[in-house]
Write a structure and sequence with these properties.
Aminopeptidase, 2 domains, 13-stranded mixed beta sheet, 8 helices, about 25% helix
Length: about 325
């Protein structure tokens, strides 16, 4: 008999067992242990037991799904109007009714809390859970390789909202390009490196606080505000590539009045050179496929496709009846 219930304190080993059942499936970072789930999922201040649903066939666990919310306008907490089904994980032996039930329970939870739109799969800031556990450097929505989840969302009325690229390149022996513009930048600008930079708001602290972060800031030699910044996270304790050190580019910003002038190319070149010197062998990034400037910049540095994903969206929605 198939039954569903919400998370209990005794459940972390059950979730670990289900996660390990997906060894070999792209996107599900391995190995995973109870302490890692505690660090990256249960320890979030906005974690709600009612949003994590488990499925059992008789007494055998066959899947779980996790729903939460995106940030509010000030990024000081969650906004219950924007729901996210971060993950639906089914044991390989589970039938389609398991996924159907898990997704429906997640939707009921989100609607009951006040959601007016639900996203299937998280991306960037609209991703409360599983950074570092699913996808890669960032959460890419639902990976194309996760066909069972893609079919599940499509069959429940979700539409494609965004497509993403997971991009990767080898940093071994990296050397930035040298031309007249780059030499001029090197004369006028310096790259300051900030280890564990202070987070700028609650949401950033919640998502990035469990990782070793490095921020590269491009500033004038005479001092002043950064003209561009690049933020990188270590991809440990998960995301290792055959024992190689890996890092993920999670943010690239250029001051509005300095865009399209080559600063991003210069800063990333210097950042990648620094990371390569520190022993980082693999660099990864995730971006929306419609972000043409970001895709072009990363392609220029030799990044290649390592996967693609989809963020799904379902709207309009109405709260469940309380009668």
């Amino acid at each position: 008999m198939l039954r569903f219930r919400t998370f209990r304190n005794c459940d972390p080993p059950v979730l670990v067992g289900l996660w390990r059942s997906r060894i070999g499936n792209p996107g599900f970072q391995q190995p995973v242990a109870v302490d890692l789930l505690e660090q990256l999922v249960f320890g979030k201040l906005y974690f709600d037991y009612a949003g994590l649903i488990l499925a059992f066939e008789d007494d055998r666990p066959v899947g779980f799904a996790h729903a939460g919310f995106g940030p509010n306008a000030t990024r000081s907490g969650v906004s219950v109007e924007s729901g996210v089904v971060s993950l639906v994980l089914m044991h390989p032996s589970a039938g389609p009714e398991v996924g159907d039930g898990l997704l429906e329970h997640c939707e009921e939870y989100l609607l009951r809390r006040g959601a007016r739109v639900i996203y299937g799969g998280g991306m960037g800031s609209m991703s409360p859970f599983y950074l570092g556990l699913y996808g890669g450097s960032e959460t890419p929505g639902i990976l194309d390789a996760d066909q069972s989840s893609r079919r599940l969302f499509a069959s429940h009325g979700y539409q494609e909202d965004a497509r993403t690229f997971v991009l990767r390149r080898d940093l071994s022996g990296f050397r930035p390009a040298v031309d007249r513009q780059q030499r001029e930048f090197r004369r006028r600008l310096i790259v300051e490196v900030r280890m564990d930079p202070p987070t700028r708001d609650f949401w950033e602290a919640s998502r990035w606080g469990d990782f070793d972060m490095t921020r590269f800031e491009l500033v004038p030699r005479g001092g002043g505000e950064p003209l561009a910044t690049a933020t990188v996270r270590s991809m440990e304790p998960t995301g290792a590539f055959g024992g190689l050190r890996a890092a993920g580019l999670v943010e690239m910003l250029v001051a509005p009045n300095h865009r399209r002038g080559g600063l991003a190319t210069f800063l990333l070149g210097e950042a990648f050179r620094s990371l390569a010197a520190q022993g980082v062998s693999v660099m990864e990034a995730m971006t929306a496929q419609t972000n043409t400037p970001a895709v072009g910049l990363l392609r220029k540095f030799g990044f290649e496709n390592a996967g693609e994903g989809t963020v799904f969206r379902k709207t309009p929605l109405t709260p469940p009846s309380t009668s």
